Automatic annotation (TrEMBL), chains A, B:
<dbReference type="InterPro" id="IPR036390">
    <property type="entry name" value="WH_DNA-bd_sf"/>
</dbReference>
<dbReference type="Pfam" id="PF00126">
    <property type="entry name" value="HTH_1"/>
</dbReference>
<keyword id="KW-0805">Transcription regulation</keyword>
<dbReference type="InterPro" id="IPR000847">
    <property type="entry name" value="LysR_HTH_N"/>
</dbReference>
<dbReference type="GO" id="GO:0003700">
    <property type="term" value="F:DNA-binding transcription factor activity"/>
</dbReference>
<keyword id="KW-0804">Transcription</keyword>
<keyword id="KW-0238">DNA-binding</keyword>
<feature type="domain" description="HTH lysR-type">
    <location>
        <begin position="1"/>
        <end position="58"/>
    </location>
</feature>
<protein>
    <submittedName>
        <fullName>LysR family transcriptional regulator</fullName>
    </submittedName>
</protein>
<dbReference type="InterPro" id="IPR036388">
    <property type="entry name" value="WH-like_DNA-bd_sf"/>
</dbReference>
<comment type="similarity">
    <text>Belongs to the LysR transcriptional regulatory family.</text>
</comment>
<dbReference type="GO" id="GO:0032993">
    <property type="term" value="C:protein-DNA complex"/>
</dbReference>
<dbReference type="InterPro" id="IPR005119">
    <property type="entry name" value="LysR_subst-bd"/>
</dbReference>
<dbReference type="Pfam" id="PF03466">
    <property type="entry name" value="LysR_substrate"/>
</dbReference>
<dbReference type="GO" id="GO:0003677">
    <property type="term" value="F:DNA binding"/>
</dbReference>
Length: 287, 287
DNA sequence: CGGCGCCATACCGCCCGGGTATGACGAGAG
DNA sequence: CTCTCGTCATACCCGGGCGGTATGGCGCCG
């Protein structure tokens, strides 16, 4: 199978529509139809069921979509890292990616401590939207990432645990519920008049639901301050809490684990020393 | 980058010789030369240094070889698993791979216990040469594997630890060294007249050294019995020890960890239940 | 029942990947 | 110093395949 075929397949699978997929790929519809048919013949299995409105995946198609995405990311990573190998004759800089607004205190400490190391190399920090960090690590755009269980998919990475914390509910100051000393998740997410905001999925669309659609932490906190929402977050988010906000522990929420993650078989000495610094600084239990 | 280009590059890199690589790929030399040159142009970096005798990798080339191998394996895995998804309409059978002769007792227990489970599916056991298990898992020929640290590269897999054990020296019965109650690695591998056998590397070639070249456990034990060799092995290999052999603990040898490993994002329910059975049966400390 | 939306088929042209023949170039032998 | 050999690169040709346009088949819906 060629990566071109894989790209075509993934486009059609994601759009569920040959015409739109062709447009996205910058080509005409018929050759794409033919390429998909050829792929199905070569694989020896139907990948789509042709419905009168678009196409949907078969079981085999779902397998290929899941595995093919990581495979394609691996190929892109190989190409990207090869390019970067030659670009810099000196010590290779390290690209670190993290979710904008999360673990900022921890990252500041890490970067300060690392810069003081004798073997430190340049660290380029890339703040990307929630959920994109793992993708960037998989396709070679980043060398190392700060990720959070259970939100990010850590599978396939080597990781070191940096921190484990509980979650809290952030809600408008003065709201009756803010007088509680502790809440359950069920209680926290069903307070009348304070719906849970919705975050965009990886493809930019929003899940269905009653809450407002939001894109970053600042927006959320502003909305909470206005008495229009409440949100459950790791307690390290307290550092962002100023006037107008109240915080209540959520007793039964999943613990959030902050990890530093890097691709297996990484040979970058910069990544290795950065990870070493992180483990020395934080080195939390493996919970 | 297309997988075809990647295959070509890997062939040339491994052979360090365009002519031989072309032969191995079943094509003529000139188009292969051209393909490599095109790849270098597209990547924007020299991958080889042209020497009068063959070609050697640059730094960028080494990166592409390392990352490209896993990427290519991922693409092949995607294709293979897609084929296998459709092949069987019923519950999907599971392919388990393990090193021939290793952990046989543990595997027997596991397979017996699993077969008795209510949700058990067919398990196809593939015994392959040492070191090939991880490859098979990476390229989709197997769904789950029994691996051994520190010998196998576990990076990128999800694992459960099943067993941790020390290593012992197996030597001819009656040999003076067999009267020792314990040996160090240095002592065990430098007994006059008892060289350590050499095992083939993944590509089938042998490392340099004084010991005999061998291919499987039976050969080794026979040679030891004949007084021509001695070998350090995990102590579970004692079950293979019969007349004519002696066993001495090796105090400072690395502990051997037996794990069950599977690809991340595996969705096979068969793999999941097999792993569950294994953890329940053995569930060793995570040392 | 007509029109529409969507995918498949038919057919064509051109690019590119593969083949053969040959050149360039450095190493080593004499 | 030169001849030869080994190795990779270049030149050139050919054919398959990929992408393009035009059009057909076929459910759905109005």
């Amino acid at each position: 199978m060629e990566t071109r075929e894989l790209r075509y397949f993934i486009a059609v699978a994601e759009e569920a529509h040959v015409g739109r997929a062709a447009e996205r790929l910058g080509m005409a519809q018929p050759p794409l139809s033919r390429a998909i048919a050829q792929l199905e013949r070569r694989i020896g299995a139907d990948l789509f069921v042709r419905a009168p409105r678009g196409m949907t995946l078969t079981l085999a198609g779902e397998t290929l979509l899941r595995e093919g995405r990581t495979a394609l990311a691996a190929v892109e990573a190989a190409e990207r890292r090869t390019r970067r190998t030659v670009a810099t004759p000196g010590p290779a800089p390290v690209v670190l990616t993290a979710k904008a607004g999360a673990s900022s205190e921890l990252m500041a400490k890490l970067l300060d401590a690392y810069a003081a190391e004798p073997d430190a190399v340049d660290v380029e920090v890339v703040l990307s939207p929630p959920g994109h960090q793992a993708l960037m690590l998989r396709d070679g755009r980043a060398d190392v990432a700060i990720l959070h269980r259970p939100f990010d998919d850590l599978s396939g990475f080597d990781v070191d645990v940096l921190n484990v914390e509980d979650q809290v509910l952030i809600l408008p100051a003065g709201h009756p519920a803010s007088r509680a000393t502790s809440l359950t998740v069920a209680e926290a997410t069903s307070i009348p008049g304070l719906p849970t905001p919705r975050w965009p999925r990886l493809d930019g669309t929003y899940p269905e639901g009653p809450g407002p659609e939001l894109r970053d932490l600042t927006q959320v906190l502003q909305l909470v301050r206005l008495g229009r929402a409440a949100i459950v977050m790791p307690e390290s988010a307290r550092v962002n809490v100023r006037d107008g906000l109240a915080v209540v522990p959520v007793s039964d929420a999943a613990q959030v684990t902050t990890v530093i993650a890097w691709p297996p078989q990484s040979v970058s000495s910069g990544v290795a020393s950065l990870v070493r610094t992180a483990s020395r600084l934080f080195d939390a239990p493996r919970a």
